[in-house]
Design brief:
The protein has about 375 residues and is α/β, with parallel strands linked by helices. The longest helix is centred in the middle third of the chain and has 20 residues. It starts with 8 loop residues before the first helix and ends with a strand. The relative contact order is 0.20. Keywords: Transferase. One of its GO terms (molecular function) is acyltransferase activity, transferring groups other than amino-acyl groups. Pfam families: Transferase.
């Protein structure tokens, strides 16, 4: 397709592939997955003067970000006329767990998976289930997105400082992902509390706690079964912190920041083999993955989600006729959507191996983004605001 993005390719690159150009109705790929051969993966190519944009969209009932990475590697290999071996089985077969108690959805959800809920239809999986009450979304502040660039050297220094402070409670220095998640959690919630306060959320929604939603890939937890698996392997889990303790991180309190890092780490480590088997039971009890919902309310300023696309295709090498690239790798990989998503979250964008900068996308209400950009301590971590 030939589309007018308001830029030719050289102008796009010089502008850093600005996010606002990728928020447009042309990127509307959403919709329920039905039995009438609805697409689970969609590929669109947009030709513009001097280059092309490749749009990839997938349905979470079928695949996840790791699947997108594998798909891009396979697609790129085809353009190079090469064959690579990747997982191909869309069915994940796991052993049965002992039938020690009823495995109906309500029992499983109440016992362990308290964030999950059944949707009234097949519009999922993991569509949000709002809390009762609160402001109508028509009166909720509009969202925007910004990319903050943070030097890897700063994050590595922070990781080592936290490891030293933990005095053995952390086996190894926390990953860049966990450090970026901890900073994002603290500073975004602080900005949201200042800008939004409790004007829009349901009454007593948070109870003095703050919540971060984590996405954990569980393939490594079941290596024997997942070796040839190509499908959704994401578990959604929440971390919780007392709000005053979280806000203290923004004032340079290394003790509280270490607590936040330990909390996120503990949440991720919750996902082991037994957890995956119990999660399988929950999916089975739902009857259809599209009926799985998640209790999550974007109107609550103490909430923020966090995930990563760090390894999603940035190092794949392409050989597309008529398209020139020095290293045959993508110049950029960025989210695209029909509108700014009305859901507060942070996303680590893809980067090539050896990159010295982390590109962190944040999507939050405009009034909160303004407050965040005015926070001198947050901006002290940032080397450049790309959007």
């Amino acid at each position: 397709m030939v589309e007018d993005f308001g830029y030719n390719y050289s102008q796009f690159a010089a502008a850093g592939f600005p996010l606002h150009a990728f928020v447009h109705p042309r990127f509307n790929r959403s919709g329920p997955l039905s039995e009438d051969l609805s697409p689970t993966f969609q590929i669109h190519v947009y030709w513009i003067e001097g280059g092309l944009l490749l749009s990839v969209a997938y349905h979470h009932a079928f695949s996840d970000a790791e699947c997108a990475r594998m798909f891009l590697e396979a697609f790129a290999a085809q353009t190079r006329h090469e064959t690579i071996q990747l997982p191909r089985d869309c069915v994940l077969t796991l052993p049965e767990t002992p039938m020690t108690e009823p495995k109906d959805f309500e029992t499983l959800a109440k016992k362990e998976f308290t964030d999950y809920a059944l949707l009234p239809d097949k519009s999922g999986p993991l569509n949000i289930v709002l809390s009762p009450g609160g402001a109508d979304f028509s009166g909720f502040p509009s969202f925007t997105g910004t990319v903050f660039e943070i030097e890897d050297a700063k994050i590595k220094e922070l990781s080592q400082s936290i490891h030293n402070y933990a005095q053995g409670r952390l086996i190894k220095p926390p990953s860049s992902y966990v450090c970026l998640a901890a900073l994002t959690w603290a500073f975004v919630v602080k900005a949201r509390m200042e800008a939004e306060q409790d004007k829009y959320c349901p009454e007593n929604e948070h109870g003095g706690e703050s919540r971060m939603l984590n996405n954990v890939n569980f393939r490594s937890k079941i290596p024997d079964e997942s070796g040839d698996y190509w499908g959704d392997a994401a578990a959604a889990l929440s971390s919780y912190m007392a709000l005053p303790d979280l806000i203290r991180c923004c004032d340079g309190d290394l003790e509280k920041l270490t607590d936040v890092v330990e909390t996120i780490t503990a949440t991720i480590e919750t996902v082991d083999r037994d957890y995956v088997l119990r999660l399988r039971d929950l999916y089975a009890a739902a009857g259809d993955p599209r009926r799985l919902g998640f209790k999550w309310d974007p109107r609550t300023p103490q909430n923020i989600g966090f995930t990563t696309w760090r390894y999603a295709g940035a190092d794949s090498e392409w050989n597309i006729p008529g398209v020139f690239s020095v290293d045959r790798k993508p110049d950029a990989i960025t989210p695209a959507s029909p509108t700014w998503a009305a859901n507060p979250y942070g996303l680590i964008l893809p980067a090539k191996s050896g990159a010295t900068i982390h590109k962190l996308f944040l999507g939050i209400p405009k009034i909160s983004m303004e407050a965040l950009k005015k926070d001198k301590t947050w901006m002290g971590w940032v080397s450049r605001v790309a959007e």
